[in-house]
Amino acid sequence: MLRYWRWSALPFGVLYLILLAVQFRGLLTNVNLDADAVSAPVIGQLFGSAGPHASVVLGEFAWYATLLFELATKWLPLHREIWEATPYLMALAGVALAAWSVWQLAGRFAASLTAVLLICAAPGTLRLLLSMTQHAPDWFCLALLAALLVLLERRATTLRPTVLVAVAVVVGTIVGVNAASDLLVVIAGLAPFTVAVLATYVLVRGPDSLRALQAALGTLVVTGIAWVITDVVMNGLNVIPEPGLSTTTLAGASQIATNFKLWWHSIAVLGNGDYFGRDPSFTSGLAVVCAALSIGAVVALPVVIWRELRVRASTRAARMAPARLAFIVFWCSSAVLLSVAFLLSATPVDIHADRYLVGLIYAAAAVIPVIAAGRPATRAVALVCTCIFALGGVISMAQGTVARNVSGFPSVAVADQIAGLAARNDLKFGYSGYWDAAPITWASHLRVEVFPVSVCDRNARLCPFDLHYISSWYTPRSGIRSFLLTDPALALVSAPTPDLGPPSAVYHVGGITMYVYPYDVATKIVPLAK
Questions:
Q1: 518: CB partners within 8 A, 6+ apart
Q2: Which among 81, 87, 428, 70 is positioned nearest to 239, based on CA atoms?
Q3: C-alpha angle 406/93/232, rounded to 5°?
Q4: Which of 177, 224, 329, 457 lies 20 to 30 angstroms, CA to CA, from 504?
Q5: Do 274 and 164 meet the contact criterion of CB atoms below 8 Å apart?
Q6: Contact 487, 453 (CB under 8 A)
Q7: What angle do CA 276, 92, 229 make, to 5 degrees?
Q8: 253 has which bridge partners?
Q9: What is the pTM assigned to this prediction?
Q10: Contacts (Cβ under 8 Å, ≥6 apart) of 266
């Protein structure tokens, strides 16, 4: 029986997937109650109804890749289900790519640890992976680039040129579209990829490394072309990120200290270590241990890359394993660059900034099993730590944490009631605060279309919200009635503005109040700036 000890982490991964499958429908429903996440499918669904001159304003980064995927699959009969399931399928594909890469370098045992570490995601990590507007495609791109490095460094001279060209085109196109969408792909993916290829070529001179360098440069060229084409296409479709928002502003000295606290807090939350504010118990104690393991693994990555480069530069061992060198340099430099960018950026505000750091969990899960695979003692330690981490994920999944609506977002039942009231009053279009609009629209299966607004001019008027909208939503429609939803719990629009006049009907659905007006409320909304 002792010979099977090395596979003792796998049952945790299998159990996690079983629990996830049982709760998957509820989990998707919960994720789609978050306006940030569900705005993507709502905009994708309503994109075709926008006029020829309408503009589409996305979020703080331009999730072009998500929108292009939606437009390409919108014609499919089950596209709604495809859109909802694709984020997790992409996450599983990322797990498969990372595990395959580790398998090539360190064997099946190390690959099994990587797979379990990535599968048994913390509730916070899983929610981010299921949202296509929270940088989830970035982490898939990182796993894809790492797998490409391993493939090139191992087989660049044996693969046929046509295969290399095809791989470069496919990978370059995927990464290029996502790089045009999100600067994080450049920071955490393309820059480390370039560093890894060049470092391996310098330290491992030979025809194999030269061929790998040439193929990698070809991939980068395709990436640049795809990036430019994506920008041109999106500009032609009048799709832009949120105007006036800068994600490249540097933090001041005081914010860097705050960012450091957010950095380690985020790693803990993403690494099954969200013990903050919990009463002492077995699960909170386990969370503390998971937090320590996750932070320790991430902190170890700069040490790993330094040791790897120093050893390789001083011995001839580099000639033996160029793929390992490229892989470790890629993931460790990715973690370092991502952390530095986070610490120096003015963008992080609160714990929700953890969405920028999921790549650190991927880096640790990829590198630690590889460096631990060399000796029995380190293999045993890595296995025990993986089992502890996975146990934290399994317990969270068993407790149903990921499927709970803990943020007070409008429920599916509330959306159904609002859609029923709208149908009885011959209403189709409405307006509400941002956190209610897209979730109610999607949960009602677009029986009602609710558009996000905010209050401006000292609470005297309604204005369009500043992100995730199509400009035509606020163009007045003649001859229709509409409604306004107010929700004091979510604070953005807590009462009708004075200029709307008396409503023709008022309904109460949970904590939401529905005001029906005999005209289109868009006629009272402050026009969008040209």
A1: 481, 504
A2: 70
A3: 90
A4: 457
A5: no
A6: no
A7: 105
A8: none
A9: 0.94
A10: 351, 353, 354, 356, 357
The sign of the CA dihedral 114, 118, 120, 121 is: positive
> Could you tell me whether strands 429-432 and 449-456 are parallel, antiparallel, or unpaired per DSSP bridges?
parallel
How far apart CA 41 and CA 74 sit, in angstroms, is 10
| 340: amino acid identity, one letter | V
Query: Residue 162 corresponds to which tokens in the numbers above?
Result: 């046509």
Angstrom distance (rounded) from CA 338 to CA 318:
26
List phi, psi (to 5°) of 450: -110, 125
Alpha-helix residue ranges (DSSP H) falling in 345-403: 358-372, 376-398
User: Dihedral (C-alpha) 471, 474, 475, 479: value to the nearest 10 degrees?
Assistant: 150
Q: How far apart are CA 241 and CA 390, in angstroms?
A: 37
